[in-house]
């Protein structure tokens, strides 16, 4: 097996075998001990504190009821919401049931219907539940696995970042500080136990970045990479990039921008440009094959599906471009509250990352700096912003900030202590919402709307011990509702829902009935179809004739009716009982049965009582 040509000096080749090459013009470290100073006991003390904090945060994440924020949460942890059930769990269970039936063409049909939530994570969910059983708890447990993979991969990226020449850097400190930054990121912790794609995509992005950095130099053996080994590394990197694309489209575009810019740097500084072009081309092969399959030739389906994929993708990536820009202070609120455990620590993390990029000039740190810019600028300049869009940038900030702090602890432990200790004390003593002057927004007066926003976002929702990022009902209430409906409709009868609320999607209802012994045939036939006469009735009244309402209801054996019209008492939907339920109650063709009542806790208002009824319409023979 022939080796690729290597024209670097022997010192550079040795550095390459360790996984890092210094930037042009920088001095080389001569060994792992160079630059260390200060008492070892102080570093050991910090390491112990970081390790204990890391373990505690891990335990609190798995058992949130033991955390300090448990008493302040509103109700129980939320059940899964609309997007989680409709776009992740529904296709996962459909694929699993079709596979168990041996209906592989139907499996591929479901896979190709994953247009907004690409298919990678639903496939993982399907495999996971195929082993452990179908259900909400099982599905969400996979998020915990991906979350801890994310923390481990952040540590791995940190180890790559601190290498400089033959100096492998402060490995223990880096692992602890990067890991602590990652495991204490509020947004990642909130999205991990959900079925949103953020944490799985961050895992894929971290894998892709790790492989991208490694592919420059790592291979079987030492010195210059062997040709076959380099090809395998390139193809593996390309597979991970392709997997990222089919995990979440928009985050993959950010990753693609970062790697494109970094590849341009490689081409400029490469001593063997032809070999670099060949390597980059190999890396792009898996993604190119995936794009051709998805957008041009979606086997085993046809060209019409490819056209749908192209249209859905363009609609997805170009959507939300004509919205009113969000208030700048509100954008900054997401940044200071969501990435680090406390806004003060977020500022410290940013300063540490900046210092690392300036003082630790290596090719890897340049790659991560480019990634940070590529992940921040498009998100910061787009009109549409959700808090979770910050997570790709958070990944890089955890790595750079943690690595910078690790180098500071290694080189000047006394200085590190003098700076870090007051920051940790301040973050523990000062409530997060009182730090809004950091974003140019004074702490609002008690009782004002702005104060409510500050406390809601900074102090509770996007906080270290905030609730999971789901818009579902409290889990106990959700399960109580589903138990009532399952008892009323039985295992095989079809069911609709007149006046459906956003808290329970059609997929949620059918998944819950399946989990409670409902037939697989009913699930596969009805779970994807509409359940209401209109999708999610809005605040604008829509009237139907009695016959139109009866015609709708005859599609199902039973129709669920919340007597109050809305599960959480939205004032804008108070018209539903009069407009829809009253004409049906007046018809002699309908039969009504009360299933039971539940009390739904609401965060900003008092509890809302809901009576669930079941309606049956006689079908004319």
UniProtKB/TrEMBL annotation:
<feature type="transmembrane region" description="Helical">
    <location>
        <begin position="390"/>
        <end position="408"/>
    </location>
</feature>
<keyword id="KW-1133">Transmembrane helix</keyword>
<keyword id="KW-0812">Transmembrane</keyword>
<feature type="transmembrane region" description="Helical">
    <location>
        <begin position="171"/>
        <end position="189"/>
    </location>
</feature>
<feature type="transmembrane region" description="Helical">
    <location>
        <begin position="141"/>
        <end position="159"/>
    </location>
</feature>
<feature type="region of interest" description="Disordered">
    <location>
        <begin position="1"/>
        <end position="35"/>
    </location>
</feature>
<feature type="transmembrane region" description="Helical">
    <location>
        <begin position="44"/>
        <end position="63"/>
    </location>
</feature>
<feature type="transmembrane region" description="Helical">
    <location>
        <begin position="333"/>
        <end position="359"/>
    </location>
</feature>
<feature type="transmembrane region" description="Helical">
    <location>
        <begin position="195"/>
        <end position="215"/>
    </location>
</feature>
<protein>
    <recommendedName>
        <fullName>Glycosyltransferase RgtA/B/C/D-like domain-containing protein</fullName>
    </recommendedName>
</protein>
<feature type="transmembrane region" description="Helical">
    <location>
        <begin position="366"/>
        <end position="384"/>
    </location>
</feature>
<feature type="transmembrane region" description="Helical">
    <location>
        <begin position="415"/>
        <end position="433"/>
    </location>
</feature>
<feature type="transmembrane region" description="Helical">
    <location>
        <begin position="277"/>
        <end position="296"/>
    </location>
</feature>
<feature type="compositionally biased region" description="Basic and acidic residues">
    <location>
        <begin position="1"/>
        <end position="10"/>
    </location>
</feature>
<feature type="compositionally biased region" description="Polar residues">
    <location>
        <begin position="19"/>
        <end position="30"/>
    </location>
</feature>
<keyword id="KW-0472">Membrane</keyword>
């Amino acid at each position: 097996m022939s080796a690729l040509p290597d024209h670097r000096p022997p010192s550079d080749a040795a550095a390459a075998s360790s996984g890092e090459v210094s930037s042009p013009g920088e001095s080389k470290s001569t060994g792992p001990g160079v630059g260390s100073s200060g008492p070892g006991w102080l570093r050991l003390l910090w390491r112990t504190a970081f390790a204990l904090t890391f373990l505690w945060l891990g335990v609190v994440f798995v058992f949130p009821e033991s955390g300090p924020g448990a008493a302040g949460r509103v109700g129980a942890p939320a059940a899964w919401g609309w997007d989680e059930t409709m776009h992740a769990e529904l296709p996962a269970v459909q694929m699993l049931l079709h596979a168990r039936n041996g209906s592989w063409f139907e499996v591929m049909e479901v896979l190709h219907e994953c247009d907004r939530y690409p298919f990678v994570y639903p496939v993982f969910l399907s495999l996971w539940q195929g082993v452990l059983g179908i259900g909400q708890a099982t599905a969400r447990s996979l998020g915990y696995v991906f979350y801890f993979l994310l923390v481990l991969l952040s540590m791995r990226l940190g180890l790559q970042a601190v290498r400089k020449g033959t100096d492998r850097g402060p490995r223990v400190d880096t692992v602890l500080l990067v890991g602590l930054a990652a495991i204490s990121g509020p947004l990642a912790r909130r999205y991990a136990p959900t079925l949103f794609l953020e944490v799985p995509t961050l895992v894929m992005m971290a894998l892709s970045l790790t492989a991208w950095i490694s592919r420059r130099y790592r291979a079987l053996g030492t010195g210059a990479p062997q040709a076959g080994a380099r090809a395998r590394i390139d193809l593996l990197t390309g597979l991970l990039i392709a997997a990222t694309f089919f995990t979440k489209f928009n985050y993959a575009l950010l990753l693609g921008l970062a790697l494109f810019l970094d590849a341009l740097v490689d081409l400029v500084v490469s001593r063997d440009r032809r070999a670099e072009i060949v390597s980059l081309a190999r890396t792009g092969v898996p993604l190119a094959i995936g794009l051709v399959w998805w957008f041009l030739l979606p086997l085993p389906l046809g060209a019409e599906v490819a056209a749908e994929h192209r249209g859905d993708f363009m609609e997805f990536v170009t959507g939300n471009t004509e919205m009113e820009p969000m208030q700048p202070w509100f954008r900054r609120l997401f940044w200071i509250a969501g990435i680090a455990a406390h806004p003060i620590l977020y500022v410290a993390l940013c300063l540490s990352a900046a210092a690392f990029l300036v003082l630790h000039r290596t090719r890897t740190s340049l790659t991560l700096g480019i990634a940070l810019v590529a992940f921040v600028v498009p998100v910061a300049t787009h009109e549409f912003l959700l808090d979770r869009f910050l997570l790709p940038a958070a990944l890089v900030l955890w790595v750079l900030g943690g690595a910078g702090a690790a180098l500071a602890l290694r080189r000047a432990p006394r200085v590190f202590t003098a700076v870090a200790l007051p920051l940790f004390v301040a973050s523990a003593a000062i409530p997060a919402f009182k730090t809004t002057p950091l974003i140019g927004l004074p702490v609002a007066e008690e009782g004002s709307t702005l104060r409510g926003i500050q406390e809601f976002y900074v102090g509770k929702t996007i906080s270290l011990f905030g609730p999971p990022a789901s818009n579902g009902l409290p889990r106990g209430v959700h399960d109580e509702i589903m138990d009532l409906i399952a008892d009323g409709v039985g295992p095989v009868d079809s069911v609709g829902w007149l006046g459906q609320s956003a808290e329970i999607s059609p997929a949620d209802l059918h998944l819950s009935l399946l989990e409670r012994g409902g037939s697989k045939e009913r699930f596969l036939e009805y779970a994807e179809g509409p359940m209401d006469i209109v999708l999610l009735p809005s605040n604008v009244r829509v009237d139907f004739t009695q016959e139109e309402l009866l015609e709708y209801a005859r599609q199902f054996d039973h129709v669920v009716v919340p007597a109050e019209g809305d599960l959480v008492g939205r004032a804008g939907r108070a018209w539903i009982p009069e407009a829809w339920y009253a004409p049906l109650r007046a018809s002699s063709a309908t039969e009504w049965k009360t299933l039971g009542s539940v009390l739904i806790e609401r965060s900003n208002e008092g509890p809302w009582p809901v009576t669930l009824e079941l309606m049956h319409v006689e079908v004319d023979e």
